[in-house]
Amino acid sequence: MSPTLPESLTPIILEQYGRSEKTFPLSALQRSAIRASPLIDAVEVEPGRYQLRGTNHVGTALLPGLRVIARPRFKALGNVFFLLGYGDGLTRWGAQRFPYDVEADFFKAMAWLFESEIGQALRFGVLRGYEEREELLPTLRGRPDLTTQLRKAPGRPYPLACRFVEFLDDTTFNRRLKAAIRRVRRLPGLDPSLALRLRHHLAAFANVTDAPPGHFCDPPAQFNRLNEHWRGAAILARLILDQRTLVDRHGRTQGITFAVDMNLLFEAFIRKVVGRIASQRGFELAPEGQTLPFSDKARMKPDLVLRRHGVALAVADAKYKAIVPAEKKWSHDNLYQLLAYCVAMNLRRGLLIYAESEGMQSRQTTKGIPKELRTEEVSLAGTPDQLVGRAEHVAHLLVGQATEHEVEQALAGVA
Questions:
Q1: Is 372 helix (H, G, I), strand (E, B) or coil?
Q2: Which residue blocks in 46-205 are alpha helix, DSSP H?
Q3: How many whole angstroms separate alpha carbon 248 and alpha carbon 245?
Q4: Residue 414 phi, psi (nearest 5)
Q5: Count of H-run helices and E-run strands, the chain
Q6: 321 CB contacts (<8 Å, ≥6 apart)?
Q7: N or C, which terminus of the chain has less Cβ within 10 Å?
Q8: Which regions of the chain are under pLDDT 70?
Q9: What's the CA gap between 275 and 272, in Å, rounded?
Q10: How far apart are CA 348 and CA 219, in angstroms?
């Protein structure tokens, strides 16, 4: 068995990008599990003793002899859930509907929310659906499948290869939900009342086939007025099942990491709000991940580009990573990156959007190449409405830059 740390019965709580106050003796198995986890890093600070350090992820790591919780810098765990749901319109996740305000463990907080969504949706019963089946039957059902008949029963009148549609509980959608419930129930230290309710919910899926978490690679379900009440549970199930499970090479111990990349989450939130505001003003947001040429061989990938009729009119980058207040200066890498975008797209202005921007100048004009680079903060502290309000403010700023560029181009054409 792997050695157990003295603190193994209590969680080691880190702030995002923070460091543990204590150092720990880590076995080779523990170091291997930490390397495989996106949540934490381990740095040897003295022979045989390691300091744990947070990364850009928040969440929970249950590793051999270790339980680590990484909290968001902005102290509001509920806002993480709000951001997770915002992209799918689930703004009601921001409400205090379960005790995540006192539950430090991110995975357990997610369990409370998942149980709540499942319980509310089950008031309307398990969602049944139509699935196409292919089976060999003694009598015809649906329509004959001649290709399968020739392959599996050539020259025989029966059994008949049939293709038919059946209305049933055992759908891919329900198998995903059941797998997520089973995985959450295996979480160590789950609140007894929560475990009991999850067991009750699992009984509702008795007619659904068990499937391993890795079985699901299909796209998310399409929702409409008939199944909209299952949206929250489905999204959470996808999040739960997408998290990696870490198993050591000898098969003695197993660890679970539930981690949320705050960089990606922040960028996705900003994109959603900017895209909505921009479309209202007749602009389009360039597709996510689209690259633009910088030179004959180099390409770049800005986070946000506003266009009209395919012409780039404004550019911005969204950065979650905190600025160290003591430095009181710009992040040079981000500054150079934004400048490159402006030069390549022949734009006079650029916008940097930070989750924290303490000590940074709001405007700066570059030498030699006259470009105005502006910084705005979208703090993730406060209420969900405040978060959206800040994001809408920077969205309007970016739309304003696009509008100004259009006017400047039109006046230059007239001149």
A1: strand
A2: 77-86, 106-121, 146-152, 172-185, 192-203
A3: 10
A4: -65, -40
A5: 10, 18
A6: 17, 56, 263, 355
A7: C
A8: 1-9, 75, 87-104, 213-221, 243-255, 322-331, 357-361, 367, 414-415
A9: 5
A10: 40
Strand partners, 317: 352
Q: What is the pLDDT of residues 271-291, one digit of tens each?
A: 999 999 999 999 999 988 777
Contacts with 89 (C-beta within 8 Å, 6 or more apart), sequence order: none
**Integer Cα distance of 18 and 14 in angstroms:** 6
Contact between 397 and 350 (Cβ < 8 Å): no
406 Cβ contact list (under 8 Å, min separation 6) = 308, 313
Residue 231 identity (one-letter amino acid): R
Q: Which amino acid is at 179?
A: A
The pair of structure tokens assigned to 73 is 């810098």
Residues in the chain: 415
Burial of 181 (0-12, 13-18, 19+ CB in 10 A): buried
3-class DSSP state of 131: strand
**pLDDT tens-digit map of 252-272:** 555 677 788 888 889 999 999
Helix axes 172-185, 231-242, angle to 10 degrees: 60
Q: Where are the domains of the chain?
A: 1-75+246-260, 76-128+169-243, 129-168, 281-414
Q: So what's the pLDDT on residue 12? A: 87
Nearest to 370 by CA among 355, 391, 349: 349
The pTM for the full model equals 0.75
Tell me the C-alpha distance between 181 and 240, whole Å.
9
User: What strands lie across the sheet with 160-168, from one edge to the other?
Assistant: 129-137, 160-168, 143-144
The encoded tokens of residue 181 equal: 């419930």
What is the pLDDT, as a whole number, of residue 29? 87
* CATH level 2 (architecture), domain 281-414: 3-Layer(aba) Sandwich (3.40)
Which position has the token pair 């920077």?
394
Report helix angle 172-185 to 106-121, nearest 10: 140
Q: By C-alpha distance, which of 263, 307, 266, 306 is closest to 395?
A: 306
**Is residue 360 within 8 Å of 334, Cβ to Cβ?**
no
